[in-house]
C-alpha cells in the first residue's frame, strides 16, 4: 500500500476509493494547499462511493461516474461557507454545509467517526477564516485614523493660509508701485527708476527761465518715449509756460 494514502485510512475508509481520489488530487491541489481529511461514503450496496476531501483552502466533493472511469469534482472555498453540520442516522451520518448564498450541500452514509472528524476539521477552518477577517478588520480600523492624520497634515503643509495669500498679494502690489512711482501732483515722475541719491524736486516757481525750459524739454522727451500721457504733458506744459 502506498504511503501517501495510509494516513487517510484511520476510520475505515475504502482503500480503493482513497487511492483513486489521491491519484487525481495531485493535479487538483493549488499552491500551498494540503489535504487534511478524506471522508468516504459507505452505502450498503454501492460500489462507487462519493467522497469528501477537506483541505486547508476548500471542500472538494468527488463523485464517480461512467462506472468509475471518470469523476466529477465540485469545490467550495472556506470563506464562502456559512456553516457545517453533521446529522447522525441509523446507517451512518449526513455531513452537510451551507454557503453564504444559502446553497445546501449534503453527503449521506458517511461513517459516524468520519463525519465527526470532518465536522471538527471544518469547524477549525471556518474559525481560522473568521479570525483572519477579524484581524484584517482591526488592522484596517487602526490604519484609518493614521491615514486621515497624514492626509490632514499633507493638506495643511500644501495649502497656503489666508494670511500668507494676503501677504503675497500685498508684496506684489508694493513692488508694482516701486516700478511705476506716482507723484503727489497726479502725474508720473520723470524717471522710471529714480536713483537712491535723488533729493526732493524743487518747486517750479523757484526755477529760472533756463531751468523751466529744460524742464519742458525733458517732459517732451518723456511724452515721446511713452513714459507720460498726453494729458499729463499738456498740464505740465501749461504750468511751466505760465511761469516763464
Explain what you see.
- With 244 residues, this protein is an alpha+beta fold.
- It has two domains: 3-131, Pleckstrin-homology domain (PH domain)/Phosphotyrosine-binding domain (PTB) (PH-domain like, Roll), CATH 2.30.29; 201-244.
- It is 45% helix and 20% strand.
- The chain contains six helices and seven strands.
- The strands form two sheets. The protein has a four-stranded antiparallel β-sheet with strand order 1-2-3-4, sandwiched between helices. Strands 5-6-7 form a three-stranded antiparallel β-sheet, covered by helices on one side.
- Helix 5 runs antiparallel to helix 6.
- The longest helix is centred in the middle third of the chain and has 47 residues, at 112-158.
- It is rod-shaped.
Element layout with pairings:
Layout: H1 3-6, H2 15-25, E1 35-40, E2 51-55, E3 58-65, E4 70-77, E5 81-88, E6 93-99, E7 104-110, H3 112-158, H4 162-179, H5 209-224, H6 230-243
Antiparallel strand pairs: 1-2, 2-3, 3-4, 5-6, 6-7
Order of helices and strands: HHEEEEEEEHHHH
Mind telling me the CATH superfamily name of the largest domain?
Pleckstrin-homology domain (PH domain)/Phosphotyrosine-binding domain (PTB)
Gyration radius, in Å: 48 Å
Any low-confidence stretches, pLDDT <50, length ≥5?
168-199
How many structural domains? 2
Going by CATH, the architecture of the largest domain would be Roll
CATH class of the largest domain: Mainly Beta
How far the N terminus sits from the C terminus, by CA atoms, comes to 133 Å
For the secondary structure, the number of strands is 7
Amino acid at each position: 500500500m502506498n504511503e501517501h494514502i495510509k494516513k487517510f485510512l484511520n476510520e475505515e475508509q475504502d482503500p480503493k476509493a482513497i487511492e483513486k481520489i489521491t491519484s487525481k488530487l495531485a493535479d487538483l491541489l493549488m499552491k500551498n494547499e494540503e489535504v487534511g481529511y478524506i471522508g468516504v461514503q459507505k452505502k450498503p450496496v454501492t460500489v462507487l462511493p462519493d467522497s469528501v476531501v477537506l483541505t486547508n483552502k476548500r471542500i472538494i466533493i468527488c463523485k464517480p461516474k461512467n462506472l468509475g472511469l471518470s469523476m466529477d469534482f465540485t469545490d467550495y472555498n472556506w470563506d464562502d461557507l456559512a456553516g457545517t453540520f453533521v446529522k447522525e442516522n441509523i446507517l451512518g451520518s449526513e455531513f452537510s454545509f451551507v454557503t453564504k448564498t444559502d446553497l445546501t450541500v449534503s453527503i449521506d452514509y458517511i461513517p459516524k467517526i468520519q463525519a465527526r472528524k470532518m465536522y471538527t476539521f471544518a469547524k477549525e477552518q471556518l474559525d481560522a477564516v473568521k479570525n483572519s477577517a477579524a484581524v484584517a478588520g482591526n488592522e484596517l480600523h487602526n490604519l484609518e485614523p493614521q491615514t486621515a492624520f497624514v492626509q490632514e497634515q499633507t493638506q495643511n503643509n500644501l495649502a497656503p493660509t489666508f494670511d500668507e495669500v494676503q501677504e503675497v498679494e500685498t508684496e506684489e502690489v508694493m513692488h508694482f508701485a516701486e516700478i511705476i512711482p506716482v507723484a503727489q501732483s497726479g502725474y508720473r515722475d520723470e524717471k522710471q527708476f529714480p536713483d537712491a541719491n535723488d533729493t526732493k524736486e524743487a518747486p517750479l516757481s523757484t526755477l529760472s527761465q533756463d531751468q523751466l525750459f529744460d524742464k519742458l524739454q525733458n517732459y517732451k522727451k518723456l511724452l515721446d518715449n511713452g513714459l507720460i500721457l498726453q494729458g499729463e504733458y499738456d498740464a505740465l506744459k501749461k504750468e511751466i509756460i505760465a511761469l516763464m
